[in-house]
Amino acid sequence: MIRKLLASTTMALSLVSFSQAVQANAISYEAAVLGDNPLAYWKLDELTGSTAIDSVGGFNGTISGDTSVGSSGAFSGSSSYSFDGNGDYVEISTGTWGGGSSLTVEAWYNLNSAGSTFQSVVSALTADFAHLQVYTAGNNVAYTNGGVIVLPIASPIPLNEWHHLVMSISSGDTRLYRDGVQIGSSSVTFTSINPTGVIRFGSGYAGGRYLSGRIDDIAIYDSALSESQVQAHFSAASAVAAVPEPGIITLLGIGIAGLGFRRRKKFNS
After folding, report:
1. Distance of alpha carbon 38 from the chain centroid
2. What is the pTM of this model?
Protein backbone atom coordinates (compact mmCIF):
# COMPACT_ATOMS: atom_id res chain seq x y z
CA MET A 1 0.00 0.00 0.00
CA ILE A 2 2.79 2.38 0.95
CA ARG A 3 4.66 1.62 -2.29
CA LYS A 4 1.58 2.32 -4.39
CA LEU A 5 0.92 5.59 -2.56
CA LEU A 6 4.56 6.65 -2.88
CA ALA A 7 4.64 5.85 -6.59
CA SER A 8 1.44 7.72 -7.35
CA THR A 9 2.48 10.72 -5.23
CA THR A 10 5.91 10.92 -6.86
CA MET A 11 4.34 10.69 -10.31
CA ALA A 12 1.85 13.46 -9.51
CA LEU A 13 4.61 15.75 -8.25
CA SER A 14 6.72 14.99 -11.31
CA LEU A 15 3.83 15.85 -13.63
CA VAL A 16 3.25 19.17 -11.86
CA SER A 17 6.94 20.05 -12.17
CA PHE A 18 7.04 19.01 -15.83
CA SER A 19 3.92 21.04 -16.65
CA GLN A 20 5.48 24.12 -15.07
CA ALA A 21 8.69 23.58 -17.05
CA VAL A 22 7.19 23.10 -20.50
CA GLN A 23 5.12 26.29 -20.23
CA ALA A 24 8.07 28.36 -19.05
CA ASN A 25 9.49 29.24 -22.47
CA ALA A 26 6.12 30.54 -23.70
CA ILE A 27 5.84 32.73 -20.60
CA SER A 28 9.47 33.87 -20.88
CA TYR A 29 9.09 34.76 -24.57
CA GLU A 30 5.88 36.69 -23.97
CA ALA A 31 7.58 38.67 -21.20
CA ALA A 32 10.49 39.52 -23.52
CA VAL A 33 8.13 40.75 -26.23
CA LEU A 34 5.95 42.81 -23.90
CA GLY A 35 9.06 44.27 -22.28
CA ASP A 36 9.91 45.97 -25.59
CA ASN A 37 6.49 47.66 -25.90
CA PRO A 38 4.97 46.25 -29.08
CA LEU A 39 2.28 48.17 -30.90
CA ALA A 40 0.41 44.90 -31.41
CA TYR A 41 0.94 41.29 -30.34
CA TRP A 42 -1.01 38.35 -31.70
CA LYS A 43 -0.11 35.23 -29.70
CA LEU A 44 -2.33 33.08 -31.95
CA ASP A 45 -3.22 30.86 -28.99
CA GLU A 46 -6.94 30.77 -29.75
CA LEU A 47 -8.47 27.29 -29.77
CA THR A 48 -11.85 28.23 -31.26
CA GLY A 49 -13.54 31.08 -33.08
CA SER A 50 -12.78 33.25 -36.10
CA THR A 51 -10.91 36.12 -34.44
CA ALA A 52 -7.16 36.53 -33.95
CA ILE A 53 -6.80 38.48 -30.72
CA ASP A 54 -4.28 41.30 -30.38
CA SER A 55 -3.49 41.21 -26.66
CA VAL A 56 -1.88 44.67 -26.67
CA GLY A 57 -3.45 47.17 -29.04
CA GLY A 58 -6.84 45.65 -29.75
CA PHE A 59 -6.12 45.27 -33.48
CA ASN A 60 -7.98 41.99 -33.77
CA GLY A 61 -7.89 40.07 -37.04
CA THR A 62 -10.39 38.01 -39.02
CA ILE A 63 -9.53 34.39 -39.73
CA SER A 64 -10.40 33.36 -43.30
CA GLY A 65 -10.39 30.28 -45.51
CA ASP A 66 -9.51 26.94 -43.96
CA THR A 67 -7.08 28.43 -41.45
CA SER A 68 -6.93 26.08 -38.45
CA VAL A 69 -6.51 27.32 -34.89
CA GLY A 70 -5.15 25.29 -32.00
CA SER A 71 -2.22 23.70 -33.82
CA SER A 72 0.93 23.00 -31.81
CA GLY A 73 2.92 26.20 -31.33
CA ALA A 74 6.51 27.38 -31.41
CA PHE A 75 6.79 26.96 -27.65
CA SER A 76 5.84 24.14 -25.32
CA GLY A 77 2.38 24.77 -23.99
CA SER A 78 1.42 27.22 -26.77
CA SER A 79 -0.77 27.02 -29.88
CA SER A 80 -0.45 28.39 -33.41
CA TYR A 81 -2.44 28.84 -36.62
CA SER A 82 -2.09 26.36 -39.48
CA PHE A 83 -2.45 27.37 -43.15
CA ASP A 84 -2.84 24.96 -46.09
CA GLY A 85 -1.42 27.26 -48.77
CA ASN A 86 -4.73 27.58 -50.59
CA GLY A 87 -6.65 30.72 -49.71
CA ASP A 88 -5.99 30.74 -45.95
CA TYR A 89 -5.05 33.94 -44.13
CA VAL A 90 -5.71 36.27 -41.23
CA GLU A 91 -6.54 39.88 -42.11
CA ILE A 92 -6.02 42.93 -39.92
CA SER A 93 -8.08 45.76 -41.38
CA THR A 94 -7.99 48.22 -38.49
CA GLY A 95 -5.22 50.67 -37.69
CA THR A 96 -2.48 52.20 -39.80
CA TRP A 97 0.64 50.11 -40.31
CA GLY A 98 3.74 52.09 -41.14
CA GLY A 99 3.86 55.84 -41.57
CA GLY A 100 6.58 56.35 -38.97
CA SER A 101 10.35 56.43 -39.21
CA SER A 102 11.00 53.01 -37.63
CA LEU A 103 9.30 49.64 -37.43
CA THR A 104 9.85 46.01 -36.47
CA VAL A 105 7.90 42.98 -37.64
CA GLU A 106 8.51 39.75 -35.73
CA ALA A 107 7.04 36.26 -36.14
CA TRP A 108 7.64 32.51 -35.96
CA TYR A 109 7.05 30.22 -38.95
CA ASN A 110 7.15 26.48 -39.60
CA LEU A 111 6.64 25.42 -43.22
CA ASN A 112 5.39 22.14 -44.66
CA SER A 113 6.71 22.85 -48.15
CA ALA A 114 9.35 25.01 -49.81
CA GLY A 115 6.68 26.00 -52.34
CA SER A 116 6.98 27.30 -55.88
CA THR A 117 6.75 31.00 -55.01
CA PHE A 118 6.90 33.37 -52.05
CA GLN A 119 5.09 32.38 -48.87
CA SER A 120 4.11 35.42 -46.83
CA VAL A 121 4.34 35.40 -43.06
CA VAL A 122 3.29 39.03 -42.45
CA SER A 123 2.69 41.40 -45.34
CA ALA A 124 0.79 44.30 -46.85
CA LEU A 125 -1.24 43.57 -49.98
CA THR A 126 0.25 46.55 -51.79
CA ALA A 127 3.71 48.05 -52.31
CA ASP A 128 3.68 49.53 -48.81
CA PHE A 129 4.74 48.68 -45.25
CA ALA A 130 6.86 45.50 -45.01
CA HIS A 131 6.70 42.15 -46.77
CA LEU A 132 8.07 39.47 -44.44
CA GLN A 133 8.17 36.35 -46.56
CA VAL A 134 9.93 33.05 -47.14
CA TYR A 135 11.19 31.32 -50.29
CA THR A 136 14.29 29.87 -51.94
CA ALA A 137 14.84 32.98 -54.10
CA GLY A 138 13.90 36.66 -54.23
CA ASN A 139 13.86 39.14 -51.38
CA ASN A 140 12.18 40.49 -48.30
CA VAL A 141 11.25 44.13 -48.82
CA ALA A 142 9.96 47.26 -47.12
CA TYR A 143 8.64 50.37 -48.86
CA THR A 144 9.65 53.87 -47.80
CA ASN A 145 9.62 57.43 -49.13
CA GLY A 146 13.35 57.03 -49.70
CA GLY A 147 13.00 53.96 -51.88
CA VAL A 148 12.55 50.22 -51.57
CA ILE A 149 14.51 48.41 -48.88
CA VAL A 150 15.69 45.08 -50.28
CA LEU A 151 16.84 42.31 -47.96
CA PRO A 152 17.74 38.64 -48.51
CA ILE A 153 14.95 36.11 -48.53
CA ALA A 154 14.47 33.87 -45.48
CA SER A 155 14.77 30.17 -46.26
CA PRO A 156 11.91 27.75 -45.62
CA ILE A 157 14.45 25.02 -44.96
CA PRO A 158 14.71 23.01 -42.75
CA LEU A 159 11.04 22.25 -43.21
CA ASN A 160 8.81 21.25 -40.30
CA GLU A 161 10.89 23.26 -37.85
CA TRP A 162 10.15 26.53 -36.09
CA HIS A 163 12.15 29.61 -37.10
CA HIS A 164 12.18 33.12 -35.64
CA LEU A 165 12.06 35.89 -38.27
CA VAL A 166 12.50 39.61 -37.56
CA MET A 167 12.71 42.65 -39.83
CA SER A 168 13.95 45.72 -37.94
CA ILE A 169 13.54 48.86 -40.04
CA SER A 170 15.33 52.15 -39.39
CA SER A 171 16.69 54.82 -41.73
CA GLY A 172 20.17 53.84 -42.83
CA ASP A 173 20.14 50.67 -40.71
CA THR A 174 17.55 48.04 -41.60
CA ARG A 175 18.27 44.44 -40.66
CA LEU A 176 16.79 40.98 -41.12
CA TYR A 177 17.31 38.25 -38.52
CA ARG A 178 16.57 34.55 -38.62
CA ASP A 179 16.85 32.55 -35.41
CA GLY A 180 18.71 35.39 -33.71
CA VAL A 181 21.34 35.74 -36.44
CA GLN A 182 21.52 38.70 -38.83
CA ILE A 183 21.17 37.47 -42.42
CA GLY A 184 20.94 40.78 -44.23
CA SER A 185 20.98 44.57 -43.96
CA SER A 186 20.24 47.75 -45.91
CA SER A 187 21.51 51.31 -45.67
CA VAL A 188 18.58 52.96 -47.52
CA THR A 189 17.71 56.26 -45.83
CA PHE A 190 14.16 57.60 -45.48
CA THR A 191 11.90 59.65 -43.25
CA SER A 192 8.78 57.48 -43.32
CA ILE A 193 7.67 53.94 -44.08
CA ASN A 194 4.82 53.80 -46.59
CA PRO A 195 1.63 53.12 -44.59
CA THR A 196 -1.18 50.68 -45.27
CA GLY A 197 -4.54 50.02 -43.67
CA VAL A 198 -4.57 46.26 -44.26
CA ILE A 199 -2.04 43.55 -43.45
CA ARG A 200 -2.27 39.79 -43.60
CA PHE A 201 -0.72 36.77 -41.95
CA GLY A 202 -0.24 33.77 -44.26
CA SER A 203 -0.88 35.78 -47.42
CA GLY A 204 0.72 38.78 -49.05
CA TYR A 205 1.17 40.93 -52.12
CA ALA A 206 -1.96 41.26 -54.30
CA GLY A 207 -3.77 38.80 -52.07
CA GLY A 208 -1.59 35.85 -53.04
CA ARG A 209 1.62 34.26 -51.75
CA TYR A 210 -0.22 31.84 -49.48
CA LEU A 211 1.74 30.02 -46.82
CA SER A 212 1.69 26.26 -46.26
CA GLY A 213 2.56 25.62 -42.64
CA ARG A 214 2.14 27.27 -39.26
CA ILE A 215 2.63 30.79 -37.88
CA ASP A 216 2.93 31.81 -34.24
CA ASP A 217 3.45 34.87 -32.02
CA ILE A 218 3.42 37.86 -34.35
CA ALA A 219 4.44 41.23 -32.94
CA ILE A 220 4.72 44.65 -34.58
CA TYR A 221 6.61 47.54 -32.97
CA ASP A 222 6.78 51.22 -33.88
CA SER A 223 10.49 51.09 -33.07
CA ALA A 224 13.46 49.26 -34.55
CA LEU A 225 14.54 46.45 -32.24
CA SER A 226 18.29 46.26 -31.71
CA GLU A 227 20.34 43.15 -32.32
CA SER A 228 20.57 42.49 -28.59
CA GLN A 229 16.78 42.77 -28.23
CA VAL A 230 16.18 40.35 -31.09
CA GLN A 231 18.66 37.88 -29.65
CA ALA A 232 17.09 38.24 -26.20
CA HIS A 233 13.70 37.31 -27.67
CA PHE A 234 15.13 34.27 -29.43
CA SER A 235 16.97 33.16 -26.30
CA ALA A 236 13.84 33.59 -24.18
CA ALA A 237 12.04 31.12 -26.43
CA SER A 238 14.35 28.33 -25.27
CA ALA A 239 14.22 29.22 -21.56
CA VAL A 240 13.08 26.45 -19.23
CA ALA A 241 11.94 26.84 -15.65
CA ALA A 242 13.94 25.16 -12.93
CA VAL A 243 12.58 21.68 -12.26
CA PRO A 244 12.99 20.25 -8.74
CA GLU A 245 15.70 17.62 -8.48
CA PRO A 246 14.41 14.01 -8.57
CA GLY A 247 15.69 13.55 -5.02
CA ILE A 248 13.57 16.46 -3.81
CA ILE A 249 10.50 15.09 -5.56
CA THR A 250 11.13 11.66 -4.04
CA LEU A 251 11.60 13.10 -0.55
CA LEU A 252 8.37 15.04 -0.89
CA GLY A 253 6.66 11.88 -2.02
CA ILE A 254 8.03 9.93 0.92
CA GLY A 255 6.88 12.62 3.33
CA ILE A 256 3.36 12.66 1.93
CA ALA A 257 3.23 8.85 1.76
CA GLY A 258 4.43 8.63 5.35
CA LEU A 259 1.79 11.09 6.47
CA GLY A 260 -0.89 9.06 4.74
CA PHE A 261 0.37 5.85 6.36
CA ARG A 262 0.36 7.38 9.85
CA ARG A 263 -3.17 8.68 9.35
CA ARG A 264 -4.31 5.25 8.16
CA LYS A 265 -2.67 3.52 11.13
CA LYS A 266 -4.33 5.93 13.57
CA PHE A 267 -7.78 5.30 12.12
CA ASN A 268 -7.23 1.52 12.22
CA SER A 269 -6.10 1.52 15.88
Report:
1. 13
2. 0.82
199 Cβ partners below 8 Å, 6+ apart?
91, 92, 97, 122, 123, 124, 125, 129
CATH 2.60.120.200 given to domain 29-236: yes
The amino acid present at 260, given as its one-letter code, is: G
Q: CATH 2.60.120.200: which residues of the chain?
A: 29-236
Q: How far apart are CA 210 and CA 53, in angstroms?
A: 21
CA torsion angle 63 198 151 186 (round to 10): -140
> Coil, strand, or helix at residue 155?
coil
Helical residues (DSSP H) of the chain, grouped into ranges: 2-22, 24-35, 227-236, 246-268
The pair phi, psi for residue 231, each rounded to 5°, is -65, -35
pLDDT (tens digit, 9 = 90+) per residue, 153-178? 999 999 999 999 999 999 999 999 99
Provide the pairing of β-strand 68-72 with 79-84.
antiparallel
